[in-house]
Amino acid sequence: MKTERIKRLCKPCLKTHHILAVCLFGLLLYGSANPAAAEKLEISTSLGFCTDYVWRGLVINDTPVLQPSLTASLKIAKVGAFSLNLWGNYDLTDANGTKNRLSEIDYTASYAFPNGPFGLELGIIHYTFPVTTDEATTEAYIRAAYELDEIPLTFSLSVFYDFDEIKGFYLLGKIESSITLIPKLDLDFSFSASYGDYAYVWRYFGWDESLFLDGVVSAILTYKISERVSLSAGGQYMFLFNGPFGQFLSESNRKKFTGTISLNYDFE
């Protein structure tokens, strides 16, 4: 049973991280050179501590990790928002033989076009694993969302297609809500459920059919310390649906609670 990321044949992935780095530079340059067209260039960073690293129903690391992130977003009047994100996973233990090393670095480029309560986002994600035997792969995705006016609820459906190594689809439905409890303190709550096609389930879970995969319940409290600094803390509970392959996984790989705390900083 495959409960870790797929170990793939060595193959370069078009140096996607170089392409995204050029795009990031282009965003910064455009925002500086065209202040009238660019409503706002936003740059934010965060450093999160997680008790485990769980991804799409897979327990990648069941020991503590650090997960840094850097995002640049450029909003252009009447066009939309272009964003680039750099995300990493840093293992704090030697559970996977990668203690004190960045075991994963992901690069995401996206374009979001809001239209009233409706939202549409297109993007591409390049996954790299610099210190492991896993090879890089790339996904394209589309996300459609609808936000209710009467109550703070957002419904979304995302479709991810790995066109590089997996040649498979992963579908994610999500319900989200954000509530201000008291001034400067917000509660974000979400529930998601996923489905993988034959190729996706086979390559990641070793089972030869399409299946509903995992459900995730998440709750995060965020306190705004200042205009630029905030602190978030909370957790998520992941459970695999009762698919046939679940009987081959241990209880800790079928159900997992992950606690997290992160420090966030917004540049201006």
What can you see in these coordinates?
This protein is mainly beta and 268 residues long. The protein has one domain: Beta Barrel (Porin). 11% of the residues lie in helices and 58% in strands. β4 and β5 form a beta hairpin. The N and C termini lie far apart (47 Å).
How are the SSEs placed, and which strands pair?
Elements: H1 16-33, E1 38-50, E2 53-55, E3 58-61, E4 65-76, E5 80-91, E6 101-115, E7 118-128, E8 137-147, E9 154-162, E10 168-182, E11 185-196, H2 198-205, E12 211-224, E13 229-240, H3 251-254, E14 255-267
Antiparallel strand pairs: 1-4, 1-14, 2-3, 4-5, 5-6, 6-7, 7-8, 8-9, 9-10, 10-11, 11-12, 12-13, 13-14
Question: Characteristics of this structure?
Answer:
single chain; about 10% helix; disordered N terminus; 12-stranded antiparallel β-barrel; Porin; two-stranded antiparallel sheet; mainly beta; about 270 residues
Low-confidence stretches: 1-18
The portion of residues forming beta strands comes to over 45%
- CATH-level-4 superfamily name: monomeric porin ompg
Note the quaternary state here.
Answer: single chain
Summarize this structure briefly.
With 268 residues, the chain is mostly beta strands. It has three helices and 14 strands. The radius of gyration is 19 Å and the shape is globular.
